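Researcher: Please generate the 3D structure of the following complex. Treat every line as part of one assembly.
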Amino acid sequence: MRVSEIAMVTPKTVMECLMYLSNRGQDARLLAGGTDAIVQMKEKVGRPKIWINIGKLDELRFIREVGNEIHIGSLSTHTELANSKLIRSRASVLAEAAERVGATQIRNMGTIGGNIATASPAGDTLPALYVLDAELELQSFAKKRRIKIADFFLGPRRTLLQNDEIITKIIIKPMQENEIGIFEKLGPRRAQAISIVNVAIKLSMGSKARQCLAGKIAFGSVAPTIVRASKCEAMLTLGLLTDQHIEDIGKVAWREVSPISDIRASAIYRKDMAGALLIRGLYRLMKRWEDQ
Amino acid sequence: MKMKQRDKQKTYQWVGKRVQRKDGPEKVTGDLKYMTDYRYENMVWGRVLRAKHPYAKIKQIDTSRAEAYPGVICVLTYEDIPGFNGFGIVVPDQPVLCHDYVRCMSDAVALVAAETEEIAEEALQLIDVDYEVLTPVTDPEEAMKENAPMLHPSGNVHTHVQVQNGDIEKAFAEADIIVENTYISPRQMHAFIETEGGWGILEEDGSLTIRCPGQYAFRDRMQIARVLAWNPHRIHVVSNPIGGGFGGKDEITVQIYLALLALHTGGRPVKIHYKREESVIAGIKRHPFKVKMKTAAKKDGTLIANQVIAYGDTGAYASLGGAVISLAVEHSCGPYYIPNVDLNGYCVYTNNGVSGAFRGFGVNQVCFAMEQNIDIIAEKLGIDPIEIRKKNVYHQGGISSVGHRVTASVGTWETLDVAEKSDLWQRRHHYKNNPSEPWKKRGIGIASSFHGIGMGIGLPDYGAATIELLPGGRFLVGVCSEDIGQGNGTVFAIVAAEALQCHLDDIDVIQGDTKLTLDSGTVSASRSTYVGGNTILAAAPNMIQLLIHTAAEIFDIDPEFVEHRDGKLWKTIPVQGKEVLSYAEIYDYLYQHRRETKVEGHFMVPTAEKMIGKNVGMPHKVYGYQTHLVLVEVDMLTGETEVLQVLSIPDCGKVINLLGLEGQAEGGAVMGIGYTLYEDTVIENGLYKTTNFTNYILPTFKETPHIQTIPVESDEKSGPFGAKGIGEVVMIPIIPAIVQAIYDATGARIRHLPATPERVYQAMKEQGMI
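Model: Done. Output below.
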């Protein structure tokens, strides 16, 4: 398929889009920000017969509080997430993650729905969504369904999303007063880089100094999908989060991950870095908690 | 210093000031159209079929399917080359289109011209090349073994450069300390913003126009002519403007492909413009080096011996590899005097792409090794790193380590002295003791280096400039040497404005055009300020003579009674008529009388007294010197290194454009940071693992530290207004300075660049620091 021969349709409403998909879903690919789809098209790995340009579906561009949930429209860009007052105050770990994606231009174009649907093990918003207990709303012409983010991914670039479906919104649980979170990323350079390892941490803090009541830790880029670090999570509440205890938790992290070697880093370095980033994240979180 | 006295004697109107680049506004606003930005109504697209294997025998090439494909205009192979099927600046051993073997993935096998870029690309897939795959040679030391497959009839060692002085064995026996290490450096990519590309047009009169960014239009024209078997005068090469060069456009890029295709498109303009992915594979790179260095000193820090074996991987073809190795050997002992040396450089063929010219030209790799060895010696002897360098530098009139007397200006000691007196060095303990987070550590590193200006002895090195008087009394200065980003056009304008006593805005500069300028030599070897400036200073007196003689004619007096002062021509004897003439009036008179308004100036680059051994190009007469002082912070958890501060201290002779110098110093520092911490084009088994800027990691603005530039102006008598060159050395000593700072911070020595987070982390782990 020549690039110049690929057709493009630009639906004006979600329903119009879903109608296209129900008829031509096999031949079509969704185009949101295009930061991944266009690269794939150039690499000849993703050349559909039709692009469905959903970039104009403004009804999927929102961030709002609904009851005890935050609803994020799937076409919200990384920049919008990073700048949103609601996300910054009630889901700061996601704002931090969105801020570390690519470069300004990429963040202005790339969408959270796209980051999820691309299903890269290195996707930066994904670990944050894991620790925020995100759920996804998937919609087809016939029906809507809601699934947990951890169930959505089957492997690298493979998801449960059907040909006739789109992700319409992402639902997260807002962080409570006693909750703090952080996103740590290690790339080959400080900006505009794909993660070698990334990690999102969310802790519920108790009344005592450095007392952790519960916590969630999710690693990216160290397994076929994002992985929750259940052993490390269990250790969070075993004692106060002193520097020594933080280091002890970090030492366990390598057991939680199963990375590969690629051009960015070796598997052994990634294993070590899972622990290093977890330690660094916890150090920084404790400093924030104590400074606040 | 001498320069200060000279400054007192003479104040300049333009020289040494902070002058905004003449091409600045159009480049920063994006107004300037680069050659590859253009499109024409009737244009066709050219594409190049690359080798499918890093080393293989070509059994057969069948282009019939591609030729029959709708939209294809022509498909060319080696059979369509009218002249000599090869190119290469020194030894033309690289086939334009391969006919018997492919020796690397960069090799071109066929060319296609088609109605659209897509059709051209599809047609490439339809060219059937039958290969017999051979096992590639991928390591220089393996390639040097007797049983290795011979990639060229002359063998796999393209050149062996050797310099021996004194008695190395005796010196090692007498030494108080000997340090021996092996250093490995990466395959850096030029990564210019404008990838290789351009236009070929067969003109109605049968001549050929090649519009293609390059670094030496006249040599490009010669190389094209050799392949076409054409008179070079029938080929017009336009090589300016350029979206960056850094040495990567010194060699032929696509000029010859454009010329061949243009002969088969019926006069329609043909465009080639590499995608980044193709540029990664096709473009030359910096030579990866392995340097084994054994350095000896006395207790007091006096360096007494240095033994160097450097292997440079030149890839499948020579390009400038021999010269790169020669320059590496010449500079391998740093700007110091070491009496006993045994220096060996091998330029070796492999199946790893092609290496060639790149800013620094072999010096980066050996400086990394030499400066590290000095630091280790200083530490073991308990000597301050600045003191040991100051102790060992040679001064003007002294002897270099390759054994020649350096008669040109030498400012190394002064650059070290500036570093020593800087706030960063004086308060280094304060800076080091305050890391931004508790698990980070800071360190400081210093290093010095030097770099020859021009081609060196035994190689033709000349320049020429034209100055034309224009309507309104303005001037057009023509120097072919292209502006590859360094700002030499503004330097040429400053030199001309100073010499002709006019406003900078009254100087236009034209560069990179074989019809409109004279052959001014290459844009390489840190030479264009030095050579271009001198050619303008050779042409300017001729222009002033023209102005004086014309004024005398108008005044109707003898020329000796005409004075050139304040940008005007004055009558010094009392006769009737005008007292003073402007340049505009001189122009009008010449124009009315249909007289020539253009003059020329020529300059031969002075050479050292005698060649070192049989090494063509060695030594140089003039060198630029440089010291870098850096502060880094290393994350002990991850191995990430951040460069926080850079002090760049060049000795470039008299500064022509202070703003331009700062631009070069800052750009050089960032390129050096990239080389040291991030950049490598990874080739495994002859195949590129690096594909584009997703995995070729360049420093961005976030990796750019605060950079301060303090020039040391050692007056170079042979230079224009006392100037030398600076284009390359500004990126060199920062490399070992960063590595030394990492050591200072962490205690871990890095001997393999780039010092990625993983390498630093591994080194800290292996050397027991974490």
